[in-house]
TrEMBL record:
Keyword set, alphabetical order: Isomerase, Magnesium, Metal-binding, Phosphoprotein
Family as reported in the entry's similarity comment: Belongs to the phosphohexose mutase family.
Protein encoded by which gene: manB
The protein's required cofactors: Mg(2+)
Lineage of producing organism: Bacteria, Bacillati, Actinomycetota, Actinomycetes, Kitasatosporales
Designated name of the protein: Phosphomannomutase/phosphoglucomutase
Length: 452
């Protein structure tokens, strides 16, 4: 019996090629995706990894063999695939392993309108079909093979984004962009073309071997080059995209990282100016500043668990205009509730270019507290350590506990959250406080229990 448990994750397919999966499995995934969605046609895109064209082509053959029409959009970012799914009204599949090393590849799937496909929304059924067909053989082809066509949507994607954020009137800005040899090198030149931006392009050559650094800007070592270039050139800001360019990380004119919570608050304020009284989603480890800014701007903040499936589900349910996560994923109602780091970056450029001050001053109003960042601890007994933390705090005066996602403990001047990793023996700690000394004290107290 084929076992796909190592590569079928909560939200996508991801594993080492060809050790864990290959084109023969990709073809079965294409057939299963066509079967489960029941679509007449689908759209497929891929990133710059060496294995991506072959895997995406095999997926297309599998879907076409079931009688499903296929539109191939070729090289694209993940949010460009979401644009294609939304604008064409088709289910989609994106071949990428995002920020993972070169030997990995994966599939992010969505239904028409960029609606997510995860374990509870079709991925479990797709896995079951692939496992069955891997053992019994693929089903016989449909009477009529689906037509495979090619389409370039990059220009339409760029035009759609530029229609959502007007950058034409901003003051000229010098911006350094580190694409990490990922798909930002493909999308940024077209999106930024003709705008009042002096673009300093770093690592725009598409190269799935990632010769300069991993395409994961949340790891501080991967933005060192960007920070240095911003400081050396006197740029107004720096932007770093991950491998599939759906996440964007920002550094200010001093080369200092801007927290994704501050970006979430800034974008929320701008979206609320367009959609007064709207709802904004934030996960439970974003800063206190996010719900504060949302309320100050007349909006309604809604707190969710960590993870894009929870954000997108809540956005669809509440009609939210925007959602943000600590991981630099940003979701927009105007983009089919899907995440697009490019659109968030354009909001930052518009906000910065619409006034005269530097970015560090602009974001200071949204960055109000001291935070630990995420601290991971290897723990054999995750449940036991969480229980010990709960026992240590449940009778303390002036604190509240909730277990929406892991354990969150909140006091007047600090809070912390501890969550177990779904895939590794780790506990993840995030602390925030009104001052750095308090944040350090709470961090050390909690780690003492976690690592006891």
């Amino acid at each position: 019996m084929a076992d796909l448990s190592q590569i079928v994750k909560a939200y996508d397919v991801r594993g080492v090629v060809p050790d864990q999966w290959d084109e023969s499995l990709a073809e079965l995934f294409g057939a299963a995706f066509a079967e489960i969605t029941g679509a007449d046609a689908i759209v497929i895109g891929h990133d710059m990894r060496p294995s991506s064209p072959g895997l995406s082509g095999a997926f297309a053959r599998g879907a076409a063999a079931r009688g499903t029409g296929v539109t191939l959009i070729g090289l694209c970012s993940t949010d460009e695939l979401y644009f294609a799914s939304g604008s064409l009204g088709l289910p989609g599949a994106m071949f990428t392993a995002s920020h993972n090393p070169a030997q990995y590849n994966g599939i992010k799937m969505c239904r028409a309108g960029a609606a997510p496909v995860g374990q509870d929304t079709g991925l479990a059924e797709i896995r079951a079909l692939v496992e069955r067909w891997a053992d019994e053989g693929a089903p016989p082809p449909a009477a009529t093979t689906g037509t495979v066509t090619r389409r370039d949507v990059l220009g339409d994607y760029a035009a759609h984004l530029r229609g959502l954020v007007d950058l034409s009137g901003i003051r000229p800005l010098k911006v350094v962009v580190d694409a990490g040899n990922g798909m930002g090198g493909h999308t940024v030149p077209t999106v930024f073309e003709g705008l009042p931006l002096e673009l300093d392009a770093m690592y725009f050559e598409l190269d799935g071997s990632f010769p300069h650094h991993e395409a994961n800007p949340l790891d501080p070592k991967n933005i060192v080059d960007l920070q240095a270039r911003v400081r050396e050139t006197g740029a107004d800001l720096g932007l770093a995209f991950d491998g599939d360019a759906d996440r964007c990380f920002v550094v200010d004119e001093n080369g200092d990282p801007v927290s994704p919570s501050a970006i979430t608050a800034l974008v929320a304020a701008r979206e609320l100016a367009k959609h007064p009284g709207g709802t904004v989603i934030h996960n439970l480890i974003t800063s206190w500043s996010v719900p504060e800014v949302v309320r100050e701007n007349g909006g309604e903040p809604v707190r969710t668990r960590v993870g894009h499936s929870f954000i997108k589900e809540e956005m669809a349910k509440s009609g939210a205009i925007f959602g943000g996560e600590h991981s630099a994923h940003y979701y927009f109602r105007d983009f089919w509730n899907a995440d697009t780091g490019m659109l968030a970056a354009m909001h930052v450029l518009a906000a910065l270019g619409g006034q005269q001050g530097p970015l560090s001053e602009l974001v200071a109003q949204y960055d109000r507290y001291a935070a630990s960042g995420e601290i991971n601890s290897t723990v054999d007994d995750q449940a036991g350590r969480l229980a010990a933390l709960k026992a240590a705090h449940q009778d303390r005066a002036g604190v509240t506990l909730d277990e929406l996602d892991g354990l969150t403990v909140t006091a007047d001047d600090w809070w912390f959250n501890v969550r177990a990793s779904n895939t590794e023996p780790l506990l993840r700690l995030n602390v925030e406080a009104r001052d750095a000394a308090t944040a350090d004290r709470v961090r050390d107290e909690v780690l003492a229990v976690i690592r006891a």
